[in-house]
Amino acid sequence: MDAGTAYQKLIAGNKETAVLGSCASLLVWDERTYMPKGGSPYRAEQLSFLAGMIHERLTSPHIGDLLATIEGSPFVGDPLSAEAVNVREIRRGYDRQMKLPPDLVKALARVTTLAQGAWVDARAASDFAAFRPHLEEIVKLKLEEAAALQTGETPYDALLDDYEPGETSANLDRVFGPMKTELTALAGAIEGASRKPDMGIVQRQYATDLQQAFGEAAASAIGFDMTKGRLDVTTHPFCSGIGPGDIRLTTRYDEENFAQAFFGTLHEAGHGIYEQGLDAAAFGTPMGDAVSLGIHESQSRMWENMVGRNLSFWTHFLPKLQSTFKGTVDDVSPEAMTFAVNRVERSFIRVEADEVTYNLHIILRYEMEKRLINDKLPVGDIPDAWNETFKEFFDLTPPDDANGCLQDIHWSGGGFGYFPTYSLGNIYAAQFFEQAREELGDLDAMFSTGEFLPLRDWLREKIHRQGMRYRSGDLVKEVTGRGPDAEPLMRHLRGKYGELYGLSF
Ligand code: CO
Description:
This protein has 505 residues and is mainly alpha-helical. The chain has helices at 3-33, 40-58, 61-70, 82-99, 102-125, 128-149, 155-163, 169-191, 208-221, 258-277, 293-307, 311-324, 334-340, 358-373, 382-394, 420-440, 443-448, 453-462, 472-480, 487-501, and strands spanning 229-233, 239-243, 246-251. It contains 20 helices and three strands.
């Protein structure tokens, strides 16, 4: 078989596997939105059956034969051609799948399913002892996984690579170290400022149906196509790309807190705009897929924080907010609204954290993960280690483990190495946003008149349409001319919060 024919077969097979994957995604979306509780056991059966089919396809020796025929041939001579990128990434996924012993994969699936249920109860009761045996089992299996994968300098690097291909803890240490010092100082200075936002503005009565209409209108205005997407309600908001033309956002409403659902919606719409911007014709191949979790998060964070929590955004949207929620915010100015949605305050819960302290929450988790995976910190020592580190970072002590080491779902699902991608997203977002300002001109002037599509289209061309052509660090370099760097994020935070709080940094 010649390389061209082998490639056609490889891509056709990959696209079929993607169809199966998208069926599983739809079942998961339904499980988290509309499925009746009683459907849970059968849904698990459906998903496990599909997962088995997908795994079988992904580990078929046939893929190895096709890859071997194509690799090294002139057909993939240009490493940045769509063909070479697809082959490179399919090879990466195949090798990863083949290195993992099937028994380990099954054990992880079983243990994490049980652990997620146990975590929900343990967090509700703030009972770490109840979760501990589950987490011990997960850490043991993740160490086996890291050993089997044998990528990177440390076991942690092997796990990190799954979420952010090519990223290393050596690089993260270099970026996060100075960030931690600067963010701590910045948060301290802001808390000492005499100027404070009026938080009452976002805590008035906001009817859910009006919140939904306003959120959908804003998502559309920034460029999320509602004819190819939906917005529904869930407990833990997410965005699910089912396939071309069908991208689903979810949020949750609080009638006495406008900001929660609204910024959650903008965030998920940012993810959704990325998914809608992918090349539909390349769906089911790496060239039609997102680069990494970090790049995905850069898109959501940019729309949520850099666009949505910006004065120019509220200059445009406040009159619309006033006409939607009649009589509720007539006394509010765009400046007061902007300040209220940008309050900085040290707090225990990551998902409620502001733009400045959020990254400290992530760096803390990153440090904890490295200690667990690389330094063999006993799982039983997590609560004390967490609280000590939290005190060092935030000068606060969590009142209980529910507000400390039990707050996040990630570890119960085996997601070690996931957290750093949130901060990488913030870092990349600031780099992309600075570059967009340079190339597109006065973005604030555009936003204040409701013009968001120039930014959306710029992101589409520079990032979304590139699929997985570049690894995240290389994509950042390709778009901005510089490699990943935390300074633009720090510049953004100093500038924005200095102005809001009347401080000079
Ligand atoms: Co996100």
